[in-house]
Structures are given as C-alpha cells and as structure tokens.
Amino acid sequence: EVQLLESGGGLVQPGGSLRLSCAASGFSFSNYVMNWVRQAPGKGLEWVSVISGSGASIAYPDSVKGRFISYRDNSKNTLYLQMNSLRVEDTASYYCVRGDQTGDSWGQGTLVTVSS
Amino acid sequence: DVVMTQSPLSLPVTLGQPASISCRSSQSLVYGDGKTYLNWYHQRPGQSPRRLIYKVSNRDSGVPDRFSGSGSGTDFTLKISRVEAEDVGVYYCMQGSHWPWTFGQGTKVEI
Question: CA-nearest residue of chain B to A95?
Fold first, then answer.
C-alpha cells in the first residue's frame, strides 16, 4: 500500500524558514516523480513544486521560486521542501503527491502557519 | 498556465438523485502522447484529496461505479448517478497535460 507521511509543519514568523519532509513507503520511490501541493485554509489547491525521480529536474511556480527548494533522498525514501523567507500568504496545508500527470496518491498533509 | 473552470461552485443535492459537475479548460488537454490527463479528486472535510477518476474516465480502485467521468478536449464532466451521504465534500478537477498542474476552484457538494 502506498503511504506518504508529511511532517515538519508548525508556526513560524514571517521571514523565517521551515523544512517539510515526506516519508514514502509501499512503492519504488526513486521511480516516481513527486510533487508538493498546498491548500490555504478554506481555499483551493495550488501546485508548489515537482521533482523528477532522480532529483535532477525540479520546477516551481513563480509564487515560491527563489524561496522554496525541493529535494529528495532516494536512499531514505524521503522528499523534502525547504521553505525560506516565508510570507503570511504561505500559510497552508502542504501535501506531497506522487505522480507526474495524474497525482494518484496524496499524503495527509502538514500545516504551516506563518504569523507574527 | 491552463485555467480550469468548474461549475457550479456549490451544488445542493438530494440523496438518491443524480448530480453533475462541469470542468472546462482554457486549452486542449490532449497531451503529446494522445492521452488526456484530466483527473477528478474528492476532498472530505478535514481530509486530503483522494483521486476518483484519472485520464477523463478511468475510476480508481475502490471508487463506486456511481461515479463516472466523461469529456474531451476542453470540456469535461463528473457525474454521480445516485448521491449518497458519503459523497459530500469538495470536488476538484485537475489537469496534468501541461506544466504546471492546475486545479479547478472546487465544487462543494452538500445534502
């Protein structure tokens, strides 16, 4: 069974940093593209990053480019999202999602709150 | 980016009755391999989204057959043949044919 378990969320002040983790199990992690998708409280879904199976190819939307870094450790079956220079508008639940074009499996999410 | 537009945004339903959600994209979702990567997700309150339908009309494992997806090009529909109480929540369409992934605004289904 595919399992994705996010962790690392919490309360951080504007301008601060946080690192999220997503522990994967039940599938061959290195063979899959992985994504981060976020959802602000009461709002819709926004794609945040995509990373290839090897980790060599990564992309971000303009809203987080230059501030967020996605990377993975295939030896640990873990996906990471390093979030720097956090803004109030980054407050959201962050989900890791498996897949390139079909997003088949989602984790339970971890909540990031950016507030002073 | 491809804009995904859902309608309606709120859908009051009656148990046992059919329901339908529309999703339109700002450009064709036919990918270079000839496939159309239009997916539907269901999110219950307090839970993460769960994929129901992939590539327009394929039901995920464990998804009841009262759910069906159809459409082509830029126009897609999710139908529930007979709504059950567990179907409440928000439904999102998502396109994976063009980077970045983009989602519809969500349709809130309530009894």
Answer: B48
Cβ atoms of B32 and B98 closer than 8 Å:
no
Q: What is the pLDDT of residue A101?
A: 86
Among residues B24, B23, B26, B21, the alpha carbon closest in space to that of B3 is found at: B26
8 Å CB contact of B96 and A106: no
Under the banding of pLDDT at 50, 70 and 90, the label for residue B92 is very high
**Which among A44, A59, A61 has the least Cβ separation from residue B105?**
A44
Distance in angstroms (rounded) separating the CA atoms of residues A60 and A65: 6
Contact A106 B48 (CB under 8 A): yes
User: pLDDT, tens digit, for every residue of A72-109?
Assistant: 999 999 999 999 999 999 999 999 999 988 899 999 99
Residue A34 near chain B (CB below 8 Å)? no
Chain A residues lying within 8 Å of B103, measured CB to CB: 44-47
* Burial of A13 (C-beta count, 10 Å sphere; 0-12/13-18/19+): exposed
CB nearest B100 (choices: A61, A99, A104): A61
User: For B3-43, what is each residue's pLDDT tens digit?
Assistant: 999 999 999 999 999 999 999 999 999 999 999 999 999 99
Contact call for B106 and A44, based on CB within 8 A = yes
Query: Which residue carries 């980077």 as its tokens?
Result: B99
Q: Which amino acid is at B93?
A: C
Tokens 């522990």 correspond to what residue? Answer: A23
